[in-house]
Design goal:
Keywords: Membrane, Transmembrane, Transmembrane helix. The protein has 555 residues and is mostly helical. It is 69% helix and 1% strand.
């Protein structure tokens, strides 16, 4: 693990910078750009979704041209420039509308002002496209997963990856968010920019210690070839062609890092891409004349592994929607709660720290207390199964929304009774829902990330990171659609208050929306246990068989 200290250091500072923005972005957009609830949530979710979809492009460029090291470096530089633009919007008054302390008759931002804001957010999204798919994969490159020791180190790396930057965030963001809220937004955004600059320096300092692999071609092209070849042979029946062989050449010497994938019976339609229907499809050397008509079993099985992740990928989307609520509506609740505790005003952005603290505490307990004690008792490396952790995460998501709904109704009723914008109810009552959101991430997000990386070949690790963050992107876009649909449906009913909309939560029924999200999380729990977990178990069994075969061959 010594070699990864620079990688973990880079990730800690990079995440500190990005979360220094994210943790208080809702507050910044509402108080400095005078955005109402729906516009604010739309901007936040669309930007959040974009930062999680650009990793697909980053994964492609990394695998095909740049390699993981250079992609990480360029992504960090783009994030730094984006953070500088955000700091300028805070420091130059003309780049944003006039401040408005109330909730009505506020000046809206002009199009060109929004353009400057969006350009900064866009640079941050581009930077995320380079950093997110490569950071985990680059760290995993430092371990030899062909050995038992290497695999054990890799498993711990995932948890320590989450733990290290979360601890850094808890320590530093308390100061950053406090400065942003109570001292100066300019200084508050300059600090994350400095952290990003530091992350680049730390990353470059450790260059001499890294295992740096060159780009070896992208799996995206292979995926496209298999799909096209299978579609071209869609009329061919595998049963009637059982006598025809599949094109399954041995790996070449240049493929030393590639694990040979055995043929499986899952998703048989794609087997048509490797079916030799006519000997003329091969040239004199036994290679395909047209690689868009005939693919190898290796290429087909790579696509099958990705398709096999889709059911679990949908489960991840359901888990992450809950986390999205705390980043937007949860902070809006905090803004309209009594934040004074013993003459000290708690910045609303600090609420997000509770999620990170709970995540860190659980990982520390799991890695440093539970696992060592379990090994002493059983003399085995006993870890919670991926299925158990995802199930636990979904349950935490349901509880998070139910608790948030109960607290919100109490907060709104107290505000309406007193007749004030800010409820007399203490901001501390929001702690349980943010804690449950953090446990949702600690169980479900870490388990899903580990599953993606462990159950795809080493050459597809960059893609596994992109797939993981793509689920965050999909959850953000889906959340945006749900919010706008709920607003459209409930605002057309003149008899009751809408569920969402406006800058004042006291005039809407946010608790109803929370119950709706809790219901969707309950459906996600049923979906996972009745359907997608079967694919999870099949993948686990298949990868275990492949590892045993590799170890036997090595012996």
């Amino acid at each position: 693990m010594e070699i990864c200290k620079y990688i973990l250091g880079n990730e800690s500072f990079e995440k500190l910078a990005s979360m220094g923005l994210v943790a208080n972005l809702t507050v910044y957009l509402q108080t400095r750009y005078n955005m109402d609830g729906i516009q604010l949530v739309n901007v936040y979710n669309i930007w959040s979704g974009s930062t999680n979809v650009t990793p697909l492009l980053g994964a492609f460029l990394s695998d095909a041209y740049l390699g993981r090291f250079r992609t990480l470096l360029f992504g960090s530089m783009s994030s730094f420039l984006g953070m500088v633009v955000l700091a300028l919007t805070a420091g130059i008054p003309k780049l944003r509308p006039l401040d408005c302390p109330g909730v009505s008759k506020c000046q809206k931002p002009q199009d060109w002002q929004l353009g400057v804001l969006y350009s900064g957010l866009g640079l941050l999204a581009v930077g995320a496209g380079g950093v997110r798919p490569c950071n985990i994969a680059f760290g995993a490159d430092q371990f030899d997963t062909r050995t038992e020791k290497g695999r054990a180190q890799l498993e711990s790396f995932f948890n320590w990856w989450y733990f290290s930057f979360t601890v850094a965030l808890v320590i530093a963001l308390t100061a950053v968010v406090y400065v942003q809220t109570n001292v100066s937004w300019v200084i508050g955004y300059a600090i994350p920019a400095a952290c990003l600059f530091s992350s680049i320096i730390i990353f470059l300092i450790g260059k001499h210690t890294y295992i740096i692999t060159n780009s070896e071609g992208t799996v995206f092209v292979d995926i496209a070839k298999v799909i096209v070849a299978a579609c071209k042979k869609h009329a061919v029946s595998l049963e009637s062609s059982s006598g025809n062989p599949l094109y399954d050449p041995p790996l070449t010497e240049s493929d030393q890092r590639v694990a040979k994938l055995a043929h499986t019976d899952m998703f048989k339609f794609f087997d048509k891409a490797a079916l030799i229907t006519d000997p003329s499809e091969l040239d004199d050397k036994g290679s395909p004349k047209n690689s868009w008509r005939l693919c190898s079993v290796q290429q087909v099985e790579q696509l099958k592994l990705i398709v096999g992740l889709v059911p679990v990928w949908f489960t991840g989307i359901g888990c992450f929607i809950t986390m999205d609520q705390m980043n937007t509506f949860g902070l809006m609740q905090a803004i309209q709660s009594n934040n004074e505790v013993h003459n000290f005003k708690i910045p609303p952005g600090w609420m997000g720290l509770i999620s990170m603290i709970c995540l860190s505490i659980w990982i520390f307990i799991y890695e440093q207390i539970y696992l060592p004690q379990a090994r002493k008792r059983s003399k085995k490396n006993i870890r919670f199964t991926t299925r158990h952790r995802i199930n636990t995460g979904i349950v935490m998501a349901i509880l998070c929304m139910v608790v948030a709904a109960i607290v919100e109704k109490s907060r709104r009723d107290a505000a309406l009774k007193q007749g004030t914008l800010v409820s007399p109810q203490s901001i501390l009552l929001l702690l349980p829902q943010f804690a449950l959101s953090g446990l949702n991430e600690a169980f479900a997000a870490v388990a899903i990330m580990e599953y993606y990386t462990n159950h795809l070949p080493e050459t597809m690790r960059t893609l596994s990171g992109a797939i993981f963050f793509l689920s965050f992107s999909a959850s953000s876009y889906l959340n945006t659609a749900i919010i706008n649909l709920v607003h459209l449906v409930t605002s057309n009913n003149g008899k009751e208050s809408p569920w969402l909309g406006g800058r004042d939560l006291n005039k809407v029924k946010l608790d109803y929306f929370y119950y709706l999200i809790a219901s969707l999380a309950a459906l996600n729990l049923l979906y996972f246990n009745l359907f997608s977990c079967r694919y999870l178990e099949k993948q686990v069994d298949k990868r275990s068989e492949s590892r045993h075969e590799e170890m036997n061959e090595a012996a």
